[in-house]
Amino acid sequence: MTGPEPIAIARPDLGEEEWLALREPILSGWLTQGPKVRAFEQAFARRHQVPHALATTSCTTGLHLILSAMGIGPGDEVIVPAFTWVATANAVVHTGATPVFADVDPTTYTLDPRDLARHLTPRTRAIIPVHLFGLCADMDAIARVAPGIPLVEDAACAAGADYHGRCAGALGYAAAFSFHPRKSITTGEGGMVTTGEADLATRMSAMRDHGASVSDAQRHQGPQPHILPEFNLLGFNYRMTDLQGAVGLVQLGKLDRFIAERRRMAAFYTRELQDLPWLRPPTVPPGLGHAWQAYVCCVDPALAPAPRNAIMAQLQQAGVATRPGTHAVHLLGYYRQRYGLRPEDCPGARDCDRQTMAIPLHNRMGEADLARVVTAITELR
Ligand SMILES: Cc1ncc(COP(=O)(O)O)c(C=O)c1O
Predict the structure, then answer these.
(1) How far is the CA of 275 from the centre of ligand 1 (A)?
(2) Pocket of ligand 1 (CB under 6 A)
(3) Is 183 a residue of the active site?
(4) What is the dihedral of CA 157, 159, 164, 166, to 10 degrees?
(5) pLDDT tens column, 43-88
């Protein structure tokens, strides 16, 4: 006899509509960045109430594109939270600038504005607040501590999140989103940068396309076949394909339903788990609309029935997948060695690294799955 299917930590939700959307670019033969990407960008900009949206190959390349188009490079410093996916800091390193790690607030897991001031120097060129797991960072408090410093939102997890009535992606100087399959909406791999700055958008548009002054799509429609683009900027190839654009457009149309379902699931978990003395459900400050890319709890080592990793192993035995929330980047080998960082440099991030646990949350879960997760956790001894 076999038991019930294990419950995955995350599963993308795609179907017939995405499948059918691929038909047009495949049959037309226009596969690279073209009309589908443009339509996806326009719809994304509208949904997030931001003037400019440009699709990229990932959030990582999106962050790199933003920082490069801002002219950030060697000699500059960019402040990043220490508890985030490694890509936030990697994007800074790839520009030649130095990532400076600030601590996070262990209750929200986002950049702690109280720890920010000590990291500001005359070389600080930008701050990257991360809207981790879909909860917006405390953007107003961060801006108060660092007036005049551009805020680049790492909105990898935050499509559809809101902050006091404003959308993630429209809260700073620029933002980058991810469409990796662990995010609420996906294009397989993929990203989107957003900004209200027209000049920055123009530079990013050229730089994602080798620095070309006009795109292939524009050139093919133009009346003068002999004209090649100007290349006045050093660029990359960070273009999204039209196949991904077609899928992204369909996924974006489902975003609000996905988030509504995720909010209901998160509310159920919080209601059922909040009385456990050893597990702290995620905190949502007033005025913030969590997009619930992940539901990340904190295991109290003093009260838990077992160490976090043993709890995760027991849940796996019970058919419930879990993951650490994310990592403390200042503890990762490359960063520790290159910048001489110690765990106590960012104690909040260090503790989150050791104590957080994401439990399954995705749009293919049913009520019975949610109940099974809760039972497995509450029955732990
Ligand atoms: C906070 C954060 N930043 C950046 C990224 C990188 O996104 P991508 O995989 O699209 O490059 C991720 C992906 O997991 C993330 O969670």
Answers:
(1) 32
(2) 58-60, 84-85, 87-88, 130, 132, 154, 156-157, 178, 180, 191
(3) yes
(4) 140
(5) 999 999 999 999 999 999 999 999 999 999 999 999 999 999 999 9
Given the candidates 2.60.120.230, 3.30.200.20, 3.90.1150.10, 3.30.465.10, the CATH classification of the domain at 255-378 is: 3.90.1150.10
Cα 66 to ligand 1 centre (Å): 15
Give residue-wise pLDDT tens across range 203-258.
Answer: 999 999 999 987 777 777 776 777 788 899 999 999 999 999 999 999 999 999 99
- Annotated catalytic residue: which of 36, 64, 180, 183? 183
pLDDT tens digits, residue range 15-39?
A: 999 999 999 999 999 999 999 999 9
Instruction: Ligand 1, residue 179: give the atom nearest the CA.
Output: 10
Q: Which residues contact 78 (CB under 8 A, 6 or more apart)?
A: 67, 72, 92, 95, 97, 98, 99, 100, 124, 125, 126, 127, 128
